[in-house]
Amino acid sequence: xxxxxxxxxxxxxxxxxxxxxxxxxxxxxxxxxxxxxxxxxxxxxxxxxxxxxxxxxxxxxxxxxxxxxxxxxxxxxxxxxxxxxxxxxxxxxxxxxxxxxxxxxxxxxxxxxxxxxxxxxxxxxxxxxxxxxxxxxxxxxxxxxxxxxxxxxxxxxxxxxxxxxxxxxxxxxxxxxxxxxxxxxxxxxxxxxxxxxxxxxxxxxxxxxxxxxxxxxxxxxxxxxxxxxxxxxxxxxxxxxxxxxxxxxxxxxxxxxxxxxxxxxxxxxxxxxxxxxxxxxxxxxxxxxxxxxxxxxxxxxxxxxxxxxxxxxxxxxxxxxxxxxxxxxxxxxxxxxxxxxxxxxxxxxxxxxxxxxxxxxxxxxxxxxxxxxxxxxxxxxxxxxxxxxxxxxxxxxxxxxxxxxxxxxxxxxxxxxxxxxxxxxxxxxxxxxxxxxx
Length: 438
Fold this sequence. Notes:
Layout lengths: L1 E9 L2 E8 L15 E4 L8 E4 L1 E5 L6 H21 L23 E9 L2 E9 L4 E10 L2 E9 L3 E3 L1 H4 L2 H6 L9 H8 L9 H10 L1 E4 L13 H8 L1 H15 L3 E10 L4 H9 L9 E9 L5 E4 L5 H8 L1 H9 L5 E5 L7 H12 L8 E5 L21 E6 L5 E5 L13 H6 L15
Parallel strand pairs: 5-16, 5-17, 11-15, 15-16
Antiparallel strand pairs: 1-2, 1-6, 3-4, 6-7, 7-8, 8-9, 9-10, 12-13, 13-14, 17-18
C-alpha cells in the first residue's frame, strides 16, 4: 500500500513534491471513515489511516501526468536496472527540470513510503545521468528505524541486508553505478528468509503500479492478453465484470460471447521483430469478445463497434477487479481515468470505491479533469473527500507545484460547493482561458 510518493527535480517539478495518502482528520462526521483504510503498524500505537483513492486536478501540461510518471520511473528502475543496464549506460529515467541551467545538470530524487506487512518502508533513490549517487531502504520496527540498504555511490554500500548476509554482500561488491541495489538483491539474492530483499521489493512495486487509461478506449488488442484469456476461461471473473462494469454502463447489454480466431499480424511487423534479433513467437490465436445487445432481435455486436466508453470499461476491467477482489494490496496510479467515461458513471465508480469493504486494501490514484467528482449528487456526499483531492499548477518559470485541497481551511462552509469554488479559481490550478483567442 502506498503511503507517500515524493521526489525532486523530476520533469516539470524543479523543487520538491509530495503526494500523501495519509487521511486527514476531517470535521465532517459523514466523511470521517469513508474512503479510509486502517492499517496496524509495528511500533505505532494507533492504526495508520490511509486513503483508498486520490485524484489529481490541474490544467493541461501542469504536471499531473508527471506524478504518475514518477511512480512509473521508480518502478522501472527497480524492475529493469539489474537485468538490462549495461556498464556506462545512461539512466533512462534521468529527466531533470530543463528550464533552469543548474537543475538541468543536477541529480533527480524519487522515492516512496509503503506498507510491507505490519511495517513501514522508506525507499529513496538519487541519481544523475549515468550514476546512482545514493540509495536508502529503511524499515520502521517496534524498536525504531532499521537501515536495510544504505548506499553512497558504489564505494559505500551497507545496511542489514548486506552486513547480515554473505550472498548479498558478494552481490554488491562490484555494483554498477547505474543499477539499483534493491533491484539486484531482489533478482539475484536469497528469495526467502531474513536475508531476502524480495518482500520489500514486492511491497514497493505493488504500491506504485502505473496504468495509462488514455488509450483504453481503443480497439481490442490483436494479441491474447491475460485479461482476455481470463475473461474467456473463468465464468466468475467474466460475470463480475459484466455485473459490476459492463451492464451498468450500457443497459442494453445482456451478455458476452468469446471466440478464438487466428492472430492477424502483418508480415511487415513479423519481419521487423525478426530483424531486431528477437526470438518472440507470435501466438497462433487471439480471443475475440462480443457483447450481446437486447432489442427486437438480440444480436452480438463486434467489440470494435462498441462505444468508446464500453471499450474502455472492458479494457480497464482487470485493474478494477483487482481493486475490489485482490487479496494482495495493490495501488494503481492511472493517467486520464475519466477519458471516454460519462461523468455520472465515473462518479458512481469512485463513490463505490470509497464505500468498499474496509478489509479490501487496494488503492487508486488518478489524474482527471472531471470536476463532477467534487460535487454531491441527489443529496449524497461528493465522490471524493477533501483530502483525496490534489492540484498541480505551473509558475511563471515553468515549474510545477503539487498541493492538497486539505490545505485550504474552508471545510466548515459545506462540502457540496467544492466544484464551484474550484471552477471559480479559489484553489488555483485552472487554465487561464482569458489568454485563449481564436
